[in-house]
Design brief:
By secondary structure, this protein is mostly beta strands. The chain folds into 2 domains: 129 residues, Methylamine Dehydrogenase, Chain H; 134 residues, YVTN repeat-like/Quinoprotein amine dehydrogenase (Methylamine Dehydrogenase, Chain H), CATH 2.130.10. The protein is 0% helix and 45% strand. It contains no helices and 24 strands. A hairpin with a 5-residue loop joins strand 19 and strand 20. It is globular, with a radius of gyration of 19 Å.
Length: 286
């Protein structure tokens, strides 16, 4: 049993075991061993279950954990972002893995999104309700010098992802329905897309086609976009699907090309952009 309602989860395979990290409205993080069936207790709990809300604690969160990210090249390292305005880094091979090995305090409000840079070891992105995105070097012990770059957004960040086809590029979706693209070497946004009229809760890049991404929103729609960023930036909505009562939707593009939404309803099986006809996407349920 979880101590509270779940808020986020992420899994990793270390080579020896498969672990699932689960966060809830409680300040601790539970790690479950996926190789053991029907286990009543987590393998390890990170942080303090009775941590007092509003207090400062460098070894534990003191409020709900909203997002987490495993380090792909060092699967024993986990980042967590919390409503206590802090980011914690955990090392599962440390002498006391239940205590955070580092704490980052550069946000002034709840930290909603976090992710490691897949192309630069030790760098991570974080976005919070303070309207700021930070690129941070976790290997720098001087926390002020650790901040490599920061950007300001016009609304709360709903989702944040790295572009798998263009190293250094990432995007965020916002509460005002926009999707904003950035590059870590640029101080300003590459371009801003008014994708929806309501909060854009989730988006994902196509794993095979570098020019495609999909978005979803509480305006009850899922859209697929064809875009090019360069001297002349172009973006076109090539297909859209409206649903009834679509709220807080989450979507992801599988490596097979299947576009998956948690509502499990059919998505257009074929669409065309210019002369390019994209392969079929089959229906998939969660």
């Amino acid at each position: 049993m979880l101590p509270s309602f779940p808020l986020a989860f992420t899994h990793i395979h270390t080579g020896k075991q498969a672990l699932l990290a689960v966060s809830t409205f409680s300040p601790e993080i539970e790690l479950w061993d996926l190789d053991i069936l029907e286990t009543p207790l987590p393998k390890l709990t990170l942080g303090k279950r009775n941590a007092k809300k509003g207090t400062k604690d460098d070894t534990s969160h003191t409020d709900a954990v909203l997002a987490m990210a495993w380090h792909k090249n060092a699967p024993h390292v986990l980042l967590s972002a919390s409503a206590d305005h802090t980011i914690k880094m955990w090392n599962l091979v440390a002498e006391e893995p239940q205590h955070a090995v580092a704490s980052f305090n550069h946000h002034t409000d709840k930290v909603a999104c976090i992710d490691w840079n897949p192309n630069q070891v030790g760098q991570f992105l974080s976005a919070g309700y303070d309207g700021k995105i930070f690129l941070v070097d976790a290997t720098n012990e001087n926390k002020e010098e650790a901040i490599i770059r920061k950007w300001k957004v016009s609304s709360d960040v709903e989702c944040m992802k790295w572009d798998p086809h263009h190293p250094g590029r990432f995007a965020v979706s916002l509460e005002n329905g926009e999707v904003v693209f950035y590059h870590i070497e640029h101080k300003k946004a590459l371009f801003t897309l008014a994708a929806h009229t309501s909060p854009c809760t989730s988006f994902d890049f196509h794993p095979l086609f570098a020019n495609l991404f999909a978005t979803t929103s509480v305006d009850s729609s899922v859209k697929v976009w064809d875009y090019t960023i360069g001297d002349k930036t172009t973006v076109d909505c090539i297909t859209t699907k409206d649903y009834v009562d679509l709220v807080n939707a989450f979507l992801t593009w599988q490596m097979s090309g299947t576009l998956t939404t948690y509502i499990g309803q059919p998505f257009p099986c074929r669409f065309q952009s210019g002369k390019q006809v994209y392969p079929c996407f089959r229906r998939q349920r969660w």
